[in-house]
Automatic annotation (TrEMBL):
Gene source species: Luteipulveratus mongoliensis
Superkingdom field: Bacteria
Coiled coil region boundaries: none
Region (Disordered): 102-123
Phylogenetic classification of the source organism: Bacteria, Bacillati, Actinomycetota, Actinomycetes, Micrococcales
Protein name: GDSL family lipase
Amino acid sequence: MSRRSMGSAFAALTLAVASAAAGMTSASATPDPGPGSRPTATTSFTKYVALGDSYSAGPLIPTNSTWCFRSTNNYPAWLATDLGLYYKAGAFNDVSCSSADTTNLTQSQPIPTPDAPQGTAAPQANALKSDTDLVTLGMGGNDYSVFGSLVGTCPGLRDSDPTGAPCQAHFTVNGVDTLKASLVKTEKNLEGNIDTIHKRSPKATVVLVGYPRLVPPSGYCPDQVPFAEGDYAWADSINRALNTAVSTAAKNKGALFVDTYGPALGHDACAGSAAWVNGQYSNVLKAAAYHPLAAGMRAESKLIYAALTGIKTG
């Protein structure tokens, strides 16, 4: 979601849930490994930095540790746990922040409710050090307000043409899909981000994490995703085009890309109890609207872990 739309959404949300969010905050909160033993990594990492936007931070997934709405049960925390780094001092630094776009790798980010005296989050690249050997980057969806435009505009246009694709028509100007056109620039922005990471942390394995699917390839669930029926296929095409931009940037700059869209088949926002992504209603004990659920974060961490180590977990 864009900085502007995400910022206003979280500012309003904060007023409603400040006491609940404060009650959930805990400096000692850690991922719950659940039953069974943790996998043993065959690739050794010692210093892991997680960079990203809200799809990395995990807004409203308990427990949120900062006003960046950064959950202690997001995929970076789970990945760090599986790699044996979560409990080691100085081994894991998650600076992902809701509303971040690619500029916030090197520029400070205004945040709705400050976890810094100035009401800003520091540039995420400040966390990168010369001895950092693993970096995950989950950004791109907020550039040029692509995600925020999608989820912020489409529900309001549904009634104008419930079976058509009014949102697609809205963002098509002179035959050009403006959201898709902006993703060409997003790809270049991500390439610049990778260059920055390599410069600051030349020894690091760099992983770009894709975005999971929001809607199914067929079917319709207006109670969860209140888009016009014809806009489902278009929204999915935006989702895929965004992932293409991320994966192409990774390929062009020698980074690893982890696909979370393909494995999310059957786990979209319409999938009920099998969903990895929340629908239209934010829940302070579950997840922000249109954002990953705890199950999705855990699944993504396993995909990244497998890509890094060759070990697949259940």
